[in-house]
Amino acid sequence: MNVGDLLRPFTTWKFWSDLIVMTLAMLFSAFALNFFLIPGNLVLGSTAGLAMVLSDLGGVFGVTIKVSTLVLVLNAFLLLLAWVTLGKEFGAKTIYTSLIIGPLMDLLDKVLPASKFIAEGSTSVMGDIWFDLLCFVGIISVAQTILFRINASSGGLDIIAKILNKYANIDIGEAVTVSGVVICLTAFAVNPFRLVVIGIIGTWINGLAVDHFTAMLNRRKRICIISDDYEMIRSYIINDLRRGCTLYEVRGGFGGETHTEIQSLLTKDEFAHVLNFIKVNKLHSFVTAGNVSEVYGLWNNARKNKAENIE
Fold it and tell me: Which of 30, 56, 123, 173 holds its CA 20 to 30 A away from the CA of 215?
């Protein structure tokens, strides 16, 4: 293997787009940690939550360790497991995100310290633990979903969640909840019962939010089209959209006429293109559509084939 072969992955659009997405996702994560989790003293199901517990325990014994440092150490502890069980791509991406979260937290703390936004007499940015919880969960769930979608994670317990998702066939949101509740329970060592319960509730909401955002990103349209001009529509779906379709012979229940029905799975934009194609060409058609949240099998190959044909 020559140097060109080694450098080729770094010259692709996918590499740089994934790198930008991962960096932005971790920047949002660092913002959520610095502004809502740490000031609110919330312990949710994450390595950051465990790091807060360990940092507090260290203070009891006179040992001062920054939360950001503990986050980096704990994340690194799980990277080997990710590399072995989830593949080199996932492992490499997770190494990157794990290495930058600590420095990003430190950078935000210097450039945009949360203390400037905490009102006098308050202990957190929002001034209410439930608002802190909702803000943190909302931001971190979006970041997690985006990372999972590009076969990456923020490290730590997200690695455990991804392993449960892959090998135990558990929805990713449920896996996030299961792995996170264990960490929440460790907070009994440093936090009162009320804060621990709030952390468990937040972890549960986090899992629900990840499932919700994942379903939104994966949503497809299952369309059924009955038309005498089905051949034009079939050709457009296959040749222009590069999607597959299935033809069925159907018979009308009222008049008994035989027609051909086209069924296909499309993205929202592709569905809009099909409707526009039918409208522009004035094709007499009957169209129904429904949402599909999960697609398995050959779906992703369509985009790959399209890219190869363009090249």
Answer: 30
Dist CA 265 CA 300 (whole Å): 12
Write the pLDDT tens digit of every residue in 16-71: 888 999 999 999 999 998 888 888 777 666 676 677 777 777 765 666 777 777 77
146 is written with which tokens? Answer: 């985006």
For helices 157-167 and 67-86, what crossing angle results, to 10°? Answer: 20
- Backbone region of residue 190 per phi and psi (left: phi > 0; alpha: psi in -120 to 50; beta: other values): alpha
Q: Are residues 254 and 280 in the same domain?
A: yes
Encoded tokens for 41: 């003293």
Share in percent of the chain as helix, strand, coil (round to 5): 65, 10, 25
Nearest to 175 by CA among 197, 159, 186: 159
pLDDT exceeds 60 at position 3: no
C-alpha closest to that of 136 among 25, 21, 34, 22: 34
Kindly state whether residues 51 and 194 are assigned to the same domain: yes
